[in-house]
Amino acid sequence: MRISSEEELSGVVRDATGPLCIRGGGTRDIGRPAPGAVIDVSGIAGIRIYEPGALTLVAGAGTPLAEVEAALAAEGQRLAFEPADWRGLLGTEGVPTLGGMVASNASGPRRVQAGACRDALLGVRFVDGAGAIVKNGGRVMKNVTGYDLARLLAGSWGTLGIMTEVSLKVLPAPEAAATLVMTGLDDAQALRAMTAALQSPFDVSGAAHGDIGTLIRVEGFSQSVAYRSGKLAQMLAPFGAVTVERDGESVAALWRDVRDLAPFRGTPGDVWRFSVKPSDAPALVDGLRRAGPVERVLYDWGGGLVWVETAPGRDLRPERLEGHATLMRASTETRARIAPFQPESAPVAAIAAGLRARFDPRGILNPGRMG
Questions:
Q1: Rounded (5°) CA angle 184-190-195
Q2: Which residues pair with 180 in a beta bridge?
Q3: Where are the domains of the chain?
Q4: What is the chain's alpha carbon radius of gyration, rounded to the nearest angstrom?
Q5: Residue 269 Cα distances to 167, 265, 313, angstroms
Q6: What value does the mean pLDDT take over residues 111-132?
Q7: How many Å apart are CA 119 and CA 62, to the nearest integer?
């Protein structure tokens, strides 16, 4: 069923007699398959308010992300957290939407500098599991209206409410960008190089490593970018040869490949995402390789985010993991058999259960998706 308004959605949820499977653009098929009637909310779309001078944008949750990014680009602005497009990774079609972006907290390489999607949220409107329309937050960062439900919904995968409207903070796009490229570094060397760059005073906005090499990005005013990239090249020279890419289109293409997981596009294996302390990343990957075949690895966020491809059907989650593991790509059978999301500790699980009982008392919104 395709919904075209918040009021219609409220009525459908209120009258529902069974589980509902929430769908926006249909591009982020992650987690356990949710049973129930499909509710397509992509019709609740359109930019409602855009104030470039105030750095704020309000749009329907079904608004295509590309539409928002085009409107921002026309004013020299952007979503600073660099939302990822996982269609190539997951083999899905459709159109990424604002609601799907927030529901998955999709955040790209610039998270190390600009924060995550949830950090840019100013407010949301959503329909809860009882059909009630809820508004939280506003259009300014200091708006205080009680509990911060906007950030709570980010990364909830549609299990707490169905978003209908999203308010976001936007930022100016940089005048220039450069990327330092190093090749031939092993994982430990790359981790040390990325850590050194991120701990430097040169305001790094991306640090990644994989088959693409080791990449360090700086952005800003042209003269500042030239100065900082030069200083970083000098600082990183002991790790190996450094080349500096300054062409804007080439720099954008490099980081688009990191953001959208280009090395995993069209490959046959399952893909896991690990969120760990950067210093733990090389040991994590070494352990995974000792346990079985690992096809490819990509480090992002300076090593804090590790993408790993392995043979289909394997549970890569270590017995002891200081962090989180998510099964991002696998067959429906594998996702039904292996818990796709990191199991929660007992106290956190109790809090999560309490929240779901409050916002979805009948348990009808994407039931089991995060189980």
A1: 155
A2: 216, 244
A3: 6-172, 176-259, 262-337
A4: 21
A5: 37, 10, 9
A6: 95
A7: 20
Q: What is the pTM of this model?
A: 0.93
**Main-chain phi, psi angles of 156, to 5 degrees:** -90, -5
Does residue 278 register a pLDDT over 70? yes
The two three-digit tokens of residue 356, written as one number: 């779901």
The pLDDT of residue 139 is 55
Q: Could you tell me the end-to-end alpha-carbon distance of the chain, in angstroms, rounded to an integer?
A: 25
The rounded distance, in Å, linking the Cα atoms of 196 and 71 is 36
Contact 344, 355 (CB under 8 A): no
DSSP state, 53? G
String of DSSP letters for 343-362: PPPHHHHHHHHHHHHHH-TT
Structure tokens at 46: 């359109």
Q: How crowded is residue 267: how many other Cβ atoms within 10 Å of its Cβ?
A: 14
Q: Which two tokens stand for residue 302?
A: 């300076």
Both tokens assigned to 189: 């060397």
Which CATH number does the domain 176-259 belong to among 3.30.70.2860, 3.20.20.60, 3.40.470.10, 3.40.50.720?
A: 3.30.70.2860
Domain 6-172: assigned CATH number: 3.30.465.10
Q: Are 96 and 87 in contact (CB under 8 A)?
A: yes
Residue with tokens 């509990």: 147
Find out whether 58 and 130 touch, Cβ atoms under 8 Å.
Answer: no
CATH number of 262-337: 3.30.70
Identify the pLDDT of residue 345. Answer: 86
Q: Do domains 176-259 and 262-337 have the same CATH topology?
A: yes
pLDDT tens-digit map of 312-352: 999 999 888 889 999 999 999 999 999 999 888 899 889 98
Residues 6+ apart with CB under 8 A from 55: 77, 169, 170, 171
